[in-house]
Amino acid sequence: MTTKAVNQLNALYNIIDNQQQPEDWTNYDSTFRILSTWSSFFGRPKYVNGVNTGVTWTQTKINMKHAISLYQTVLSVLSSKSLSGIINCNDAFLKKTGTTTADQKHVLYHDTRHQPAYDVWLPSSLSGKLCHETQETNGWTWQNPFAQRDEITICPKIFDNAKNEQLSSVDNSMSGLQNKELGYYKYLTAGGTLMHELTHAAYNIGFDLKAGDQLVTLPGTTSTTPAYGVKLIRLLATTASGPSIALKNADTYAFFALAMYLDACDWSREVCGAQDFSLRKKTPNGAWNYLKFDY
Length: 295
Ligand SMILES: [Zn+2]
Hints:
Elements: H1 2-17, H2 28-42, H3 57-79, E1 85-88, E2 94-100, E3 106-111, E4 118-123, E5 139-144, E6 149-154, H4 156-162, H5 174-177, H6 182-188, H7 190-198, H8 202-205, E7 215-217, E8 224-226, H9 229-238, H10 242-246, H11 250-261, E9 280-282, E10 288-290
Parallel strand pairs: 1-6
Antiparallel strand pairs: 2-3, 3-4, 5-6, 7-8, 9-10
Helix pairs in contact: 1-3, 1-11, 2-9, 2-11, 6-7, 6-11, 7-11
This protein binds zinc ion (ZN).
Residues 196, 200, 213, 250 line the site of zinc ion.
């Protein structure tokens, strides 16, 4: 999944770096699919005669380089087997106490893997969100400041889901994926959740690259929610400062990598086969009329 994300992003980066126009693309369908998904998840670049607002191409290249480096770092941690820290498949050993720090920023749990139990102060943003505390959580990652290591938990429900179908066995063809939602594959397989959690693993990938769970404001309200899932990722990417925030959003990377893995489809609108926009129109004589990019 990560290898395919790196390869496809590099291919797109080179096309943009060489200032190729859509009419010059040697593999139009594949290039369009990658650009379309990138635009939808990380922010749409500025076109000439398409939508005239958006991220400049110079900034798009900088953003792509950042995403490529994050994926490459995750890949090198995994392929060199240098992932250090702890990966748990449950967290029921952590027992919440009623104690919080005076500034309310940390909550005391007892780590009952040890006898007597160790005190563990978790950020209050995690409190009540552990796997055994809610069914909504897929996984969570904590930078243990005392041991200076990442502790990742992938929740048991993710492994239960993955018992029936793994990402590697999904039929990656247009007919196999048609009308499916990308979110279905994220929750079906453990790979997407692991990718999400690895982007939080600062001791492994570096504090500069580390992503968080960024908040997005729901349309027509003042309330915010973490940008989980394709709908909220896409919403985040369209907000004014969205593209720079999307680069720091864990689920954006997880879903983009998944979209690059299941590359028979354009996932820019979440459902396989629905396109977010078009870069060409057929003229009455059957030839294509292409948009030009404002490089
Ligand atoms: Zn997260």
